[in-house]
TrEMBL record:
Species annotation: Coptis chinensis
Cellular component per GO, a single term: SNARE complex
Domain of life assignment: Eukaryota
Biological process according to GO: retrograde vesicle-mediated transport, Golgi to endoplasmic reticulum
InterPro entries, per the entry: Sec20
This protein's name: Uncharacterized protein
Highest classification ranks of the organism: Eukaryota, Viridiplantae, Streptophyta, Embryophyta, Tracheophyta
GO molecular function list: SNAP receptor activity
Length: 112
C-alpha cells in the first residue's frame, strides 16, 4: 500500500527540511548507504551543537565582563565628588562609559 510522503511524516510542509531529508533517505538503495548518510548527518549536527555551545559561552563571558565593568563605572559615578581621588575621570566620561556598557549589555541580550 502506497501513501503520500507528507502524510507519512505527519503533514510537514512540502519544502520543509523534514520532507527533504525523508526524500534523500528514501532514495538510498542499500542500508549501508543510508547508514553512512545518517552518520554524516549526526556528525554535522554534533559539530553545529558544539559551535553553538562555544558561541553561547563567548557571549556569557562578554556579558559577565561588561556587567562588572558597568557596575564599577556606575559606582564611580555614585562616588564622584565625595572627596575620593577622581583619577582623571570626569563625570561626563564616566557617564559615557557607563552608557556604552549598558548599550553593549542590551546588544548581548539579543545575541544570546
Amino acid at each position: 500500500m502506497m501513501t503520500s510522503l507528507p502524510r507519512e511524516i505527519g503533514g510537514a510542509p512540502p519544502y520543509s527540511f523534514v520532507v527533504r531529508l525523508s526524500e534523500i533517505i528514501g532514495s538510498f538503495k542499500t542500508l549501508r548507504k543510508m547508514a553512512l548518510f545518517w552518520c554524516r548527518v549526526v556528525t554535522e549536527v554534533v559539530w553545529m551543537d558544539d559551535e553553538v555551545v562555544q558561541a553561547v559561552e563567548k557571549v556569557k563571558e562578554e556579558w559577565d565582563e561588561t556587567y562588572a565593568q558597568t557596575q564599577t563605572r556606575v559606582k564611580s559615578i555614585e562616588e564622584y565628588g565625595k572627596g575620593t581621588e577622581e583619577e582623571g575621570n570626569s563625570l561626563q566620561r564616566l557617564n559615557g562609559l557607563a552608557q556604552d556598557g549598558l548599550a553593549l549589555l542590551r546588544s548581548l541580550q539579543f545575541r544570546a
